[in-house]
Each structure stands twice: as C-alpha cells, then as structure tokens.
C-alpha cells in the first residue's frame, strides 16, 4: 500500500479490554500484575496471550521463585492463552517476587490481561530488548475509597538500585516520602515493587543503572462512569518519539484526555481543525489535551515526548463503557501491514490511521 499506517484495536463489549496498538515481538519478556481494584474482590483472573509468528516456536512461561511453569509449542499465527495463578497480584506499596517470565526460541508477542468483575484491562508486554534505564510515570485521574494511583518497577537479571523522584506522596517500608523526595529502592534479580498513592504520581522520575521494566496506571480509574483498572507498560525515555496522531473515538459523546509527558525542556506544537498552538513543557511536566470526536490532533515536539490516551468512559448504543488507558505510538513506528486477532465473545473494533492518499490502497483479507 506504499504509505505507512497505524492500526489501533479495541477489544471488548463495554470496552473492558481497552485499546492497543501494534504489539512488539521478542524472545524474552518480564512482567507483573499490579493491584486491580480491591484485593477483596473475588474471581480475579490473570492471563497472557502469547502469539507465534513462525512454525514450531517453543515457549516457556514461569513464575520467579515458584513451581508454576507452562511449556508449549506455537505454530505460525497461533495464540496461546496462559492462565496465571491469582496470587501473583501485587497489593499495596510493597515488594513482590511474583514476576512472570516468558522465554521463546523464536519471536513471539505478549499481551497481559488483568480481570475482575467489572474491572479489567490489557497491556502490551515489551520484550527485554526494549527495556531502559529512565522512565516517567503517568497515573490517570480517579479517586475514591481504597482506589490508588500506582506504578511498579521490575528488575531484570541483575540486582539494581533504583532512584525515584516522586511527584506525589507515598508510604514505603514504614516511612512517608512526600512529593519532591527522592527514594532509593534495591531490587534483586526478577524482583518487583509496587507503589501506590491517593495523590497524582504523574511526572515521577525513575532512574536505574540497569534496564528495568515499569508499569503505570490506576487500581481503578474513574471519570464519567464506574471505575476500571488501567495499566500500561512504559517505554524508556530513549524510545520516545517526536510526532504523534491522537485520534478521537467516534462513539465518545463527551471528551477523552491526552497526556503528554516531557523529560526535558520541550516545545510542543499541536494541530487540530486547521489551527495550531504551542506549549512549552518543563522536565517531568504533564500537559493535558481534551480529545473530542470532531477531529484528531497532530502533535510534534522539539525533543522526545511520551503520549497517552485516557478514555474517560461513557455510553455507546445503550451500553456503558468504562475508562481505558493506552500509550500512543509515534509516527515513526507506523507499519505497512498488520495481523488482527479478535477476542471471542466480545465486540471487536479496529481504528486505522493513514494518509488520505493511501486509504484506497488499504486491503483486508
């Protein structure tokens, strides 16, 4: 089709599964499951969706310091669902050894699902080759009794001391760290730590001498409807981009929120409806745009930025949909072909972003 495009997939009646872009492939992955809603809510399900792209791909899924292990072989185009024991869910601000490891002898992609009754989200799991040493947290809106903004850091194969510069107050190991404080946490190989706060943690800086994985979100974010667990794995600062399209949702009658995070002094320019505006961002600052269905935003920046989309919830065809959260990929990551896998038992939606001149050349088979 010549021109590159971006495909965003929405999975789930009431959109419980959220919206996600192209899933990266690799041969080794680490992840964890942050707290979803209330720990007292029964029926928690944690799953990995692992997809193969070559014949006879051997995969091992294991839990660190656990007897749990699942070995299987994928054929080309096959997706295997792996159920993870419920005890992996992290609780409160604390360390955890319940890290999930995925290893394969050929490239695979991994999607994680955290589900409880009326509170579920999926997130892309990045391969360890995508991990970095500097991150900035984003925790979307939502407040309520026993609901928390949260993020988690997962060590890879080396012990590491991670420095965290907080934008909100947290309590860790019987000590309160206020906004602006620097906290240092030591992690053993494949150990994780979760931080929670009632305060906004957006802009919190994470620095590590060794590559780590970082998850960020909310135990149950809320805006227009009931709350819903939201989580995304973050990209390190070195992987941020400078040009983004932020598409609206055609079924959103209110507005959604785009969050833009900067790691250094950055000038952003955003275009919508034939007009453009400029905004100067400082290191660790977070800028918000209201996204409505009348048109998309095109966003450029003088240095790398991190862009998120937060659906605030609403109603579509008489069915309520709760909030969801995702990272917006930069234009340079757009591709010319995609493989779509739908979720049985749900309404599945695809949103394609492409140049007008390329629209006629898009084919689906």
Question: What form results from the Cα inertia axes?
Answer: globular
Query: Could you tell me the mean pLDDT?
Result: 91
Point out poorly predicted stretches: 9-20
Helix % is under 10%
Seen as an oligomer or otherwise, the chain set is single chain
Strand elements, count: 29
Instruction: Enumerate how many helices there are, as a single number.
Output: 1
Structural class of the secondary structure composition? Answer: mainly beta
Strand fraction equals over 45%
- Sequence of secondary-structure elements: EEEEEEEEEEEEEEEEEEEEEEEEEEEEEH
How many strands, what sense, and barrel or not for the largest sheet? 8 strands, antiparallel
| Spatial gap, N to C terminus | 14 Å
Task: Describe, in short, the structure shown.
With 365 residues, this protein is mainly β.
Describe this structure in words.
This protein is an all-beta fold. The chain has a domain at 23-239. It has 1 helix and 29 strands. It has one helix spanning 356-359; strands spanning 6-11, 19-20, 26-31, 45-52, 57-63, 69-74, 79-84, 94-96, 100-116, 119-125, 132-136, 149-155, 160-165, 170-172, 175-177, 182-187, 192-197, 205-221, 228-233, 241-246, 256-262, 266-272, 275-281, 286-291, 297-311, 314-316, 319-321, 324-327, 348-353. The strands form 6 sheets. Strands 8, 11, 12, 13, 16, 17, 18 and 19 form an 8-stranded antiparallel beta sheet that branches. Strands 3, 4, 5, 6, 7, 9 and 10 form a 7-stranded antiparallel beta sheet that branches. A hairpin with a 2-residue loop joins strand 26 and strand 27. The longest helix has 4 residues, at 356-359.
